[in-house]
Amino acid sequence: MTLRALHETARRALDPVHYDYVAGGAGEERVLADNERAFDRYALLPRVLRGSARRDTSVDLPGARGAGPVVVAPTAFHRLMHPDGERATARAAAAEGAVLVTGAAATVAVGEVAAAAREAAPGAAVWFQLYPHPRHEVTEALVRRAEEAGCTALVVTVDSPVFGRHTRDLRNGFTDLPPGCAAENMRDLPGAPPGALTDIPMSPALSWRDFDALLGTTSLPVLVKGVLHPADALLAVEHGAAGIVVSNHGGRQCDTVPAALDCLPAVAEAVAGRVPVLLDGGVRRGGDVAVALALGAAAAGVGRPVLWALAAEGEAGVRRVLAELRDDYDHTLALCGGARNADLTRDMVVPRGGTR
Ligand SMILES: Cc1cc2nc3c(=O)[nH]c(=O)nc-3n(C[C@H](O)[C@H](O)[C@H](O)COP(=O)(O)O)c2cc1C
Ligand SMILES: O=C(O)C(=O)c1ccccc1
């Protein structure tokens, strides 16, 4: 309910071109729609009388403890939503105890984002998302910036060998950020000027060798984001990934892939608990988080809901969305007779509309 209202307020407040940038997906936006709809195909099968009065929804993730199993997924250009941009998002996430993944394409530099988070809550955890650069020294410079900022893990996005074809952006001719708004983490890096959308480098030449090289530059845990195939999840574990994020980039890359949720069970089975598996795409309510956990996720990421909240009400809006998601999840956990996240097990999800 809160989310629907915030989305509507954001839609009215934003420049329609910027609204479309966030709302849109690739191609015919089939995957965008499928991500949310996938949750409608599942129902929870509660257990009863399990004595779950004292619930603990906290989650241990690489380099971070979250108050609940919801993390803020990395999204670009928060200053298109609100003048405080990623600073406001960081303060809100920290205050609500949610792990924030700040992006290479942030419009506030990672050092300032992490400082804002720690100001709001001293123990706040911030992860840094990056696209590996074909020039290793550029990747390394980004890693150093994240380390110096005090980030506790890196998230490497691997579903973007080429830029997604965002249909609405192509139609709207959205290629440049407005004046005063730039990808601040890319400043002064070779081959990466910070002004235009496509200045975030992506490369189809990258391979697991580049991932290995990245691991060699840092002692931080590194998660791999954008895995759909269970064989890639296995490779990620073998190459030393600290976690896997099952994601189709919110339907913004290939428009002919499954809903993220539909890829989760096979990935979770392949990984077999060796590292945490996270899921993002279409998570909109506490019940969605519970379904993702029952299907094998350690935590769920939210992208667009945070941006709508930021556009509508700034820091307070982001706090509201994160608080409501956590509260709704805790309520669902209670209704399922669970005291901890691990109490949501595979046998507790069934097809919606009948168990056969
Ligand atoms: C406006 C926007 C910008 C995004 N930018 C990035 C990015 O820079 N890096 C990245 O790994 N994912 C990016 N994503 C994908 C999100 O991390 C996440 O996978 C997706 O938004 C989850 O789906 P949801 O929006 O349905 O919650 C972006 C998504 C949106 C909507
Ligand atoms: O919009 C996106 O989905 C995205 O990932 C991105 C990243 C960097 C620059 C522009 C877009």
From TrEMBL:
InterPro entries the UniProt entry points to: Aldolase_TIM (IPR013785), Alpha-hydoxy_acid_DH_FMN (IPR012133), FMN-dep_DH (IPR000262), FMN_HAD (IPR037396), FMN_hydac_DH_AS (IPR008259)
One Pfam family of this chain: FMN_dh
Keywords: Flavoprotein, FMN, Oxidoreductase
Stretches assigned to the FMN hydroxy acid dehydrogenase domain: 1-354
Keyword Cell division recorded: no
Cofactor(s) demanded: FMN
EC category name: oxidoreductase
EC number, UniProt record: 1.-.-.-
Domain of life, per lineage: Bacteria
Gene Ontology MF annotations: oxidoreductase activity
Family, as annotated: Belongs to the FMN-dependent alpha-hydroxy acid dehydrogenase family.
Protein name: Alpha-hydroxy acid oxidase
Species classification: Bacteria, Bacillati, Actinomycetota, Actinomycetes, Kitasatosporales
